[in-house]
Design brief:
16 helices, two-stranded antiparallel sheet, 16 strands, globular, Peroxisomal Thiolase, Chain A, domain 1, ten-stranded mixed sheet, 17% strand
Length: 526
């Protein structure tokens, strides 16, 4: 049923326009021309840097903070508002002025660099107001195709397979679904990509993408739609058909620029993590290679137990360690593969969940952040962390009420696009203290039978990475594990009472990425 949002409260949304460290900042607004106050000139790394402070912020604030309010006209330069509209703008200006003043006083060259609120980061930063929808929606059905080289199937075929399995799992027919969210980066445009093969009769289908978090983003939006009351039943589905693309890796999405952006492949960009981590924590190159090798070995070992994985063979550590180099210290087995696949989930309100299944999964947290993409030009960024992951993890844990992720989670599906990525993620997600994840990896902490199973289904290393489907594929493993249906991969900690699972995606590159962290649970919070 489509319920709509008539007479529902509408939130005020503000937009913060980042200010930039430039040589001689001038802001013109409402007839005022402002330059940085005298004495504010500083030198960092040999380059003069000017910081916009209170005077510039105050003069520019009404352009920096723009309300999107139903029925409220936007303010234009030279125009003044009166009455309620003016009051709203004034309130927004005051809030925005305070926030931007705080940012202006940050002594950073890359403006807009948001630091973590996690204690493990060792830094103090700014958190967002994110209230979450804990236990307001639930997953009642899921489907996932085998991932691999589907030369005999189109993206449409894969969508039909995944959607059909999800509907059967929930015990419903296609007509019971009120709205659809489709995630795909390369395999289609518009909602017709899904409505055509499924023969959907005149219902909303939203097609979206958010880099490698595309599948998770489809799930997040579908959950919010049901939680809002707009729809009773929604489907989140993702698909990607990469093997027919003509590319050996992911197709290139970089738009034409001025030629100053570094032309680096994904393996090259993520290879920078390994030497940076080794240098910072005093790890010998051979020792770090052993750590990376064990991560790949673990994930291939898990994938060998999974009939839906692309690669279903264990790989000896010697083979992994001696594989041909691709970029920097990364060998072939340090990189995830390229595959085709699709996965889907059915979402309903939590109070309705047991009408569909006796083992629903309740959504505890959904956090997505996009960073300022300042890492490559920030002299303080050292390639041993993903600030976006830290921020999204802190937000997700706050939403879910998690205090100690390593002790409370039964499992985690993380974005192991490359082995050093998984290593760094163990610290950014709070599973290991800074500088100790490499020791935990070697100790087997994240093995299938370890303290916290990470990528029990085999991860991207065993599945490949069909972008639109990966996030939902991760969620599918949570669905199986928390319901006790994972077979030979079943995690013992679920039987011992752990009922929470985490999924994580990142898209982009170190220092300039987006990040999603979600948490689901087998039971509603008491």
């Amino acid at each position: 049923m489509r319920n709509g949002l008539a007479d529902q409260p509408v939130a005020l949304i503000t937009r913060f326009v980042p200010f930039t460290s430039v040589q001689g900042l001038r802001v013109t607004e409402l007839g005022h021309e402002v330059s940085p106050p005298a004495g504010q000139r500083a030198t960092e790394g040999g380059s003069p840097v000017y910081h916009a402070r209170a005077q510039a912020v105050q003069s520019a604030i009404l352009s920096a903070v723009m309300p999107c309010v139903v029925g409220l006209p936007p303010r234009r330069p030279g125009r003044f508002l009166h009455g309620p509209a003016a009051a709203v703008h004034l309130r927004l200006a005051c809030v925005g002025c305070y926030a931007l003043r705080c940012f202006a006083n940050l002594d950073r060259r890359s403006i807009g660099y948001f630091e973590s609120t996690l204690t493990t980061s060792g830094k103090r930063g700014h958190s967002m107001a994110s209230n979450g929808i804990r236990d307001r929606v639930a997953i009642v059905g899921m489907g996932c195709t085998p991932f691999g080289e589907h030369w005999d199937k189109s993206a449409s075929d894969l969508l039909v397979d995944a959607a059909g399995e999800a509907l059967t799992s929930a015990g419903i027919e296609l007509g019971h679904v009120d709205a659809f969210w489709l995630g795909t980066l390369f395999s289609g445009q518009s909602g017709l990509t899904l409505s055509r093969p499924l023969k959907i009769d005149y219902k909303p289908v939203s097609r979206l993408e958010n880099y490698c978090a595309t599948g998770s983003e489809a799930f997040r939006n579908a959950c919010y739609a049901v939680a809002s009351g707009a729809y009773d039943v929604a489907m989140a589905i993702g698909v990607e058909k990469l093997k027919d693309s003509g590319f050996s890796g992911l197709p290139n999405t970089r738009s034409a620029g001025d030629g100053t952006a570094a032309a680096m492949t994904a393996p090259a960009m993520f290879s920078l993590l390994a030497p940076a981590y080794a240098k910072k924590y005093g790890i010998e190159a051979d020792q770090l290679k052993a750590v990376m090798t064990r991560i790949a070995w673990k994930n291939h070992r898990n994938g060998a137990l999974n009939p839906r994985a692309q690669f279903r063979k264990e790989v000896p550590k010697e083979t992994i360690a001696c594989s041909p180099l691709v970029a920097g210290p990364l060998g072939i087995f340090d990189c995830s593969g390229v595959s085709d696949g699709s996965a889907a989930a059915i979402i309903v309100r939590a109070e309705d969940a047991r009408r569909y299944t006796d083992k629903p999964l309740y959504v505890k947290a959904l956090s997505f952040v996009a960073g300022p993409a300042a890492g490559p030009i920030d002299p303080d960024y050292d390639y041993t962390t993903f600030p976006e992951v830290i921020a999204s993890a802190a937000d997700a844990y706050a939403q879910a009420g998690i205090k100690d992720a390593r002790q409370e989670l039964a499992m985690a599906e993380v974005h192991d696009c490359f082995t050093p990525t998984e290593l760094v993620l163990m610290e950014d997600l709070g599973f290991s203290a800074r500088g100790t994840a490499w020791k935990d990896v070697l100790a087997g902490t994240f093995d299938l039978d370890g303290e916290l199973a990470v990528n029990p289904d085999g991860g991207l290393k065993s599945f490949g990475h069909p972008i639109g489907a990966s996030g939902l594929r991760m969620l599918f493993e949570c669905w199986l594990q928390l319901r006790g249906e994972a077979g030979k991969r079943q995690i013992a900690s679920v039987g011992r009472g752990r009922k929470l699972a985490l999924t994580h995606n990142l898209g982009g590159a170190p220092g300039e990425c987006v990040s999603f962290v979600g948490v689901v649970g087998a039971e509603p919070t008491a």
